[in-house]
Amino acid sequence: MRLYVLARNPTDSVTEGFLPAARELGLDVTLLTDHPEAHQGGLPGEILGSLEILECDVRDFRAVISRIAAHHSPGAIFTNSDHLQTQAALAAEYFGLPGKDWRTALRTKDKAQMRRHLAAAGADAVWSAELPAGRDPAGLTTLDVPFPCVVKPREGVASEDVVLVEGPEQLVRRCAEIQARRPGAALVIEEYLAGELCTLETLGDGRVRHVLGGFRTEVSPPPYFIEERMTFVPAHPDAVVAQVLAQLDALGVGFGACHTEFVVAAGRARLIEVNYRAIGDQCDLLLAQLLGIPLFEHILRTHLGEPLPSDLGARSDGRARLDYPCARSTGTLTAAPGRTEATAGGVHLTYRPLREVGEYHELHGTNRDFLGVVRATGTDQSAVDRAVADFLAAHHWEITP
């Protein structure tokens, strides 16, 4: 059976998760991408040797359908990209294959549409406004904007150009700055939702839905929202989970993997954004290890039309933490630790560099400032926390202007 995977740039989720899982399932895999050279140069030999890579404008669902129709008959169409969920869903529907509802994929990707849909469904009402691409942000000063507020690209990802704004003049200035960087992007302005930032990770087949746990997220100081630390939560309070799931139901989310970000204040859960895919930044790799389940195979099986088991057999005693050392200035990385794998005191720790020594980068104020990922798993949270803290204290990352 042939699996078509839609991708843009290479990610750890695809390279270390989904492609090996597809090989374990015995699938023939064709990768459709608009960045073929990046995948050919970044994949390990054992994966690359069994993979077919075809160039395609994967942002256009018509190009995807045409490329597949002129090639081998598809058995499944899948993507873990934020940018390509609607395209993959439309292609799967065209070929009569299992997949996400394209309407749901669209309304979760489009942050303005998500707010409108939740409000219309009576699930939650968040003050928000949309600034179309090319529109003068000065017009926003006529609105009754609740400050502080958050400005973000309508279809953005990974905290890029997400910023907290304190007043009208700053709002106009920040919007203009983002428009200069993203001339074709519409922006969303919405009320700031205070509370503890968390995630909920779910997996469903349209019939049964499993809650895999979640994370508590610590972000950088305002005005940006860079995720600096993720601590695994085996189970959020039942009432909180019920609120989040009710809002996902209102959106129509229930097939495949979903990574939902929300805040909790005074027991009330409010969605920040819904990423209709598996969690990234190596959290999915950690989750599979921590739960002791073939997570990536399960996700692919749903797209093959196979039902999920009523019990995934996941462990519940695991504890974990991820830290993301970040660049604090523009410059060249001149010192940093290398890849690390160590087990001590019942804790398994992994460090993966995300930037090579000698590379020059601008400062972005986003997840693109990550220098590496430290992830640790065990059964005792205090031991896990100590292992990560000790690793960070024993190493340094140096940026030279």
Summarize the structure in words.
This protein is of the alpha+beta class. It folds into three domains: 2-97, Rossmann fold; 127-191, Dna Ligase, domain 1; 196-400, D-amino Acid Aminotransferase, Chain A, domain 1, CATH 3.30.470. Helices cover 30% and strands 30% of the residues. It contains twelve helices and 20 strands. It has helices at residues 12-24, 36-42, 45-48, 61-69, 85-94, 102-109, 111-120, 168-181, 238-251, 283-291, 295-303, 381-394; strands at residues 2-7, 28-33, 51-55, 76-79, 128-131, 149-153, 163-165, 187-191, 196-205, 209-219, 227-233, 255-265, 268-275, 319-323, 331-335, 340-344, 347-353, 360-361, 372-378, 398-400. Strands 13-12-9-10-11-14-19-17-16 form a nine-stranded antiparallel beta sheet, sandwiched between helices. Helix 4 crosses helix 5. The longest helix has 14 residues, at 168-181. It starts with a strand and ends with a strand.
Kindly report the name of the CATH homologous superfamily of the largest domain. ATP-grasp fold, B domain
Number of strands: 20
- Which strand-content bin applies to the residues? 25-35%
> How helix-rich are the residues, as a percent range?
25-40%
Distance between the termini: 51 Å
Provide the spatial order of strands within the biggest beta sheet. 13-12-9-10-11-14-19-17-16
Please name the CATH architecture of the largest domain: 2-Layer Sandwich
What's the number of structural domains?
3
Q: pLDDT average, as an integer? A: 95
Supply the CATH class of the largest domain.
Alpha Beta
